[in-house]
Write a structure and sequence with these properties.
Order of helices and strands: EEEEHEHHEHEEEEEHEEH
Radius of gyration: 16 Å
Shape: globular
Number of strands: 13
Distance between the termini: 42 Å
Helix content: 10-25%
Number of helices: 6
Strand content: 25-35%
Oligomer: single chain
Strand order of the largest sheet: 1-2-3-4-5-6-7
């Protein structure tokens, strides 16, 4: 698929992140649904929008085919580019209702924009998810949105099936936890246990790459569960 993307399964690609867009960007993943609509998981900081769009095209997807921007949580390295991406593609942004207010208000502290010396341009969250989980239909594909609070109040993971493999997008399994981010250590540990129970075959993480195989996925998550228990 060219140098601008990394193929993970037949219809899932990494199209953004260090080495693909900007070094400060968390990973951005593309989910295709046949010839129909597609979705992005997160948007990066926004400094390399044109390069991100080029990478999406390299996967055979036109930007106007992006139906949803699936936001994992409200931190700047994941959503700094969300407003511009939403305007460019006319996609609908999706986030949990507990994180949505900080994006819509352009909060610089809770979103960690201040960590990057930046300000966040506020943008609307079109679909606010509630409770523990909901299903999102993407053409003939079902994507499960799963509330995993801890790193942020409204952190979400997304789970879908691709080629009979359970693919989990859980962007900041590693944390960090900080009072300014409204992190909750007890919620974080419970959420890691929940992620383990999903028995994912592939984990697409935000900063540590892609883990293939249930043993690799479980080992990665367990390492941070053990670390958090010691702290």
């Amino acid at each position: 698929m060219g140098n601008g993307s990394v193929q993970i399964t037949d219809d899932i690609f990494q199209v953004g992140g260090s080495g693909l867009t900007d070094s400060e960007d968390a990973a951005v993943y593309l989910i295709r649904s046949g010839e129909g609509p597609s979705a992005l998981v997160d948007a990066g900081c926004g400094g390399s929008l044109n390069r991100l769009l080029k990478n999406i095209r390299s996967c055979g997807v036109k930007p106007q085919q992006i139906a949803y921007l699936l936001i994992t949580h409200c931190h700047y390295d994941h959503i700094g580019g969300a407003g511009a991406l939403r305007a460019k593609t006319r996609c609908r942004s999706v986030a949990h209702e507990l994180d949505a207010p900080y994006m819509e208000a352009g909060d610089h502290t809770v979103t960690a924009a201040s960590w990057y010396g930046r300000t966040l341009d506020p943008f609307p969250v079109d679909i606010k998810l509630t409770g523990a989980g909901e299903e999102i239909r993407l053409g003939d594909r079902i994507i499960q949105a799963i509330h995993i609070p801890g790193h942020s109040p409204g952190s979400l993971a997304y789970l879908t099936i691709s080629g009979e493999k359970r693919v989990l997008f859980a962007q900041d399994v590693h944390g960090p936890l900080a009072p300014t981010l409204l992190s909750d250590p007890s919620d974080y540990q419970r959420s890691l246990q929940h992620l383990l129970s999903l028995n994912a075959d592939i984990l697409c993480e935000g900063h540590y790459g892609v883990y293939d195989g249930q043993e690799a996925v479980q080992g990665f998550i367990e390492s941070f569960l053990a670390r958090s228990a010691r702290n």
